[in-house]
Design goal:
The protein is mainly α and about 350 residues long. About 75% of the residues lie in helices and about 0% in strands.
């Protein structure tokens, strides 16, 4: 095995600093609010360091030589080439999202080197900052239910809100995905923790009026409960879902009223109150009127540039044509279908549900 130390400092300690910065920067808005583009540079450098560490210990972090090769080719194609061709917008976008690839690799590195306690301490610190952002965001949403939706990628209003610690699109979906991941990994061992995490994610998703985040959270948690289980536990899960359906059938109006009160005068409240055909039809109407046009615009770009994508073209000419509401579709539109497949393959290949479950249970 390679030497685990860089001088007197272990590579796991260096990795923990990189994870800490990327993690906190992603969920604690004041960092970007005060540092601006410097934060983007620090995130890029942190992700690059994590990738280089994973390559140094490639036999530990990666599952095969093909996995290493595809990851390196993907990173060069989506980050290095756009920088060289002067399209830094695309390169910065996926440099910051490189954590999707490096995080599982670092998880495996810490486990194989016996440094899980260091990783747990790192995650706890990140969770503390996430809790601060959750509280700040919820406090501000009480006065303005559309505040989180008003945060964009730039502008004076966005910077001011970030400096005040208000989370936007990224933080809301971070909470939703975290809630799903908790069900996926911890449901077997810590059910109360999962339910508590779900409640917090559901509350902020409703309060911030991100209906898609609510649907992703609910559907994702249901699928997580049913996936990777024995037949007996799947039947129990189905029974649980069936029981919840019956409860909603008889107490649905109370539940809807509760959600409407949480959403105040927001978008979700209007959606639930305005549809005379029921909740499902209201969601369908919302999707057709708001999401569908943006999704179709991304699909049109995919069909037009399916080979090489648009990431080698000036971003100013393309951003207006992208829907920018679907991470998956936008990725295929930007990268093209072949490179998009390699990108998502690199992410999926890095994650092993069974391996994570074994590690968590020990």
């Amino acid at each position: 095995m390679h030497n685990q130390k860089f001088g007197k400092i272990s590579y796991c300690q260096i990795a923990s600093v990189g994870i800490l910065y990327v993690g906190i920067s992603s969920i604690f808005p004041p960092i970007y609010g005060y540092l601006g583009n410097i934060d983007v540079i620090f995130c890029a450098l942190s992700n690059l360091i994590l990738l280089l560490i994973s390559l140094k210990f490639n036999s530990t972090c990666y599952k095969s030589r093909n996995h290493v090769f595809i990851t390196v080719i993907t990173v060069i194609a989506i980050i290095a080439i756009p920088y060289v061709t002067g399209n830094a917008v695309w390169a910065n976008r996926y440099m910051n999202l490189l954590f999707f690839i490096t995080a599982p690799l670092m998880f495996r590195l810490f486990y194989k080197f016996g440094r899980m306690q260091l990783l747990k301490k790192t995650v706890i610190i990140i969770c503390v900052f996430a809790s601060i952002t959750w509280i700040n965001t919820m406090t501000n949403l009480i006065d303005n239910p559309y505040l989180a939706r008003s945060i964009k990628s730039g502008g004076e209003v966005t910077i001011a809100l970030k400096k005040n610690g208000v989370g936007g699109y990224e933080f809301i979906y971070f909470c939703a995905v975290l809630g799903i991941m908790m069900f996926l990994v911890f449901w077997k061992y810590r059910k109360l923790t999962c339910l508590f995490g779900f409640a917090l994610a559901f509350l902020i998703s409703v309060m911030s009026n991100y209906m898609t985040a609510v649907l992703v959270l609910v559907i994702g948690c249901v699928i997580s409960i049913l996936s990777g289980r024995t037949v007996k536990k799947k039947l129990i899960g189905i029974l649980l879902i069936f029981s919840l359906a019956i409860i909603f059938r008889y107490f649905g109006e109370i539940i809807v009223n509760f959600i409407v009160n949480l959403s105040a005068d927001g978008r979700i409240a209007r959606l639930l109150e305005s549809s005379d055909k029921g909740l499902i039809q209201g969601i369908v109407d919302e999707f057709q009127g708001d999401r569908l046009p943006t999704i179709l615009s991304s699909i049109n770009v995919i069909f037009e540039y399916y080979g090489m994508g648009v990431y080698l073209q000036p971003s100013e000419q393309i951003l207006a044509t992208l829907g920018q509401h679907s991470y998956v579709l936008d990725t295929f539109a930007i990268m093209g279908v072949p490179l998009g497949i390699l990108y998502f393959y690199s992410i999926v290949k890095s994650i092993s549900y069974n391996e994570v479950s074994v590690i968590i249970s020990t």
